[in-house]
Amino acid sequence: MLAIHTDSGPFAAGWVEYCSKNDIAFRAVDCFSSDIVEQLQGCRALLWHWQHHDYRAALFARQLVYSLETRGLVVFPSRATCWHYDDKVGQKYLLEAVGAPLIPSHVFYDEKSATEWLRNSGVPLVWKLRGGAGSRNVKLVTTTQNALRIIKRSFRSGWRASRLHALDERVWAFRRAPSSRSFLGIARGIARAVRPHEKYRNQSTDRNYVYFQDFVPENDHDIRVVVIGERAFAIKRMVRKGDFRASGSGLIIHDPREIPRDCLRIAFDVTKAIGSQCCAYDFVRSGNDWKIVEISYAFSLAGYTACPGFWDADLRWHEGDFRPEYFMIEDVISHLKKDHIP
C-alpha cells in the first residue's frame, strides 16, 4: 500500500486523483504527527510534497525521509532528491562535485575572507540567501560599498524574510495582468507587509555565511527544465522590465522550439549523476554555454499546464497533455514493481 501525506503541497491532490482513477489503495497519513512511523506500518512507499516555506517541515523532513529509506520504504522525494532543497549552498557543493556547469558561486563563513575575496573579485555580483524561491532573497549588487554592507550584516545582525516581497510580487502581478482579482491581491500584500504569514514569522534568521554568484549579463530570459524520471518538460521565462530575474515573472513561453537541446541534455545528465527522482533546473546563457543557476525538486504546477508535451531521455518529443504529479507516482509504483517490494 502507498501512503500519501494529503494535507499539504499541491502535488498531493494529483497523487490522490491518480490512485482513485486507477483503483490503487493508499493510506492518508500525517507526516507532522509524532507517530508517523507507526502510521506507515504495512505501507511500501510514502509520497509527501513538503514545501520550502513550511518552517515545521524544514525542521525534520530530511531526517524523516532518511529514516524511512533506512527502513526500506520508497519515499518521494527521496533523500537524494530533497536533501539540497531550498539550500543554494548545498546545491553549490553538489553541482560542483558532479562537474555540472554551475554559474561560478562563492560562499564564505567569516567576514574577513569574504571581504578580502570581494576586493579581488569586484562587482557586479548576485547575492542570495541559501533559501527562497520565486526571486525571493536575491539581489543584484552593483557597487563594492553595497557588497561590503551585505557582508557585514551577514555576519552580524543577519537576514530575515522581507515583509515587502509579497507586496512587490502582487504589484507586479497587477501590472502584468490588471484585474479586480490582482488588485485585491495588492490589498492582501499590504496586509501581509503589516502582519507576515505565520510561515515567514517563524523562519529563522540567516547569519554567519554569505553567498554570491557571478552575474551573467545580457540575458532577457532563462530556461526552466524539469526532469521527472525519464521525462523532461520545459518553459522559457522572460525577465520582467527593469529587473534581471526571470523566476517569478509569470512571463512564460511554452513553445518547445524555444528550448535549447543543450539544456535538456544537461538536465538529464545531472539528474542521473545526483540520483534525483525529480529536479527542476534554472539555466542562463553565459557566452556560448548554458549554465545552471540553481535546482529544486519542487515547482509550481501552474506554470506548466500549457506545456504541449514532453521529451524522453533520448530527447524524442511526445506531443500531448500530461500531469507532472502522475509522472511522480508512476515512477514510485514502477520502482516498487521493479524491486519486487512486497
UniProtKB/TrEMBL annotation:
The keyword Nucleotide-binding applies. GO terms for biological process: SOS response. One of its GO terms (molecular function) is ATP binding. It comes from the Bacteria. Keywords: ATP-binding, Nucleotide-binding. Residues 92-143 form the ATP-grasp domain. GO terms for cellular component: cytoplasm. The keyword Ribonucleoprotein does not apply. Pfam families: RimK. This is ATP-grasp domain-containing protein. It comes from Pacificimonas flava.
